[in-house]
Amino acid sequence: MRSIFAVFKREMALYFRSPVAYAIAFAMFFFLGVLFNGYIAQANGQYPADGTFAPGLITFLMFLIAPLLTMRLLAEESREGTLEVLMTLPMNESQFIIGKFLAAWGYYTVLILISLIYYVLMAIVGVPDAGQAVGAYLGAWLYGGAVLAITMIWSAVTEDQVVAAFLGAATVLVLYLTEIAAIWVAGQQTASGAADFIRELGLQAHYTATMAQGVIRAEDIVYFVFMIVGALFITTRIVETRRWRA
Question: How far apart are CA 7 and CA 10, in angstroms?
Fold first, then answer.
């Protein structure tokens, strides 16, 4: 645990000193602010307050946010030759990877907590469903953790941060759009079971249809935890392979 915390502390400090991290936060909240103002102007007391406004948009934007937050975590270390040096420290690969992941998830958690201001503003102008908001924010937090872990894989694969970000964004988009693939497969009369299988693999089936509606199911939480653990396992094996080659 001490090794994990040491890596976590180092990476969190780097996030709060990085102009890229601040640029990501600024762009995200600027986008949310513009859409929030438009939503309030359009609703004008005619629609119920939506407490899931912010987490819903954040999960949609994660195909851009997650790759930008994770692209440097391992790619930069590999390019600058510091990964091999860090690997000589008294820690194993899994501790190193977990520490870096927790830092990225920690920074994302800060963004989620700041976005609660939109729920407060919704509560001022209306009466949002608190239960639905809890499910949506919990889901957005787990969703973000899963996506960050997935995009970390590409940061371990390549030394080029741009390539890592592009491949990470493409992977998240594929997982986000599996619902469309499932609908297409469902239209093929010979593959009804395959459509359900594809849908369950996607991110939206475990967030939009359930947690974003305030329905917290054990299978959805297990899905996100499994995605995190599985992605971190793959990343660790990639780093181990690189260490053996070195």
Answer: 5
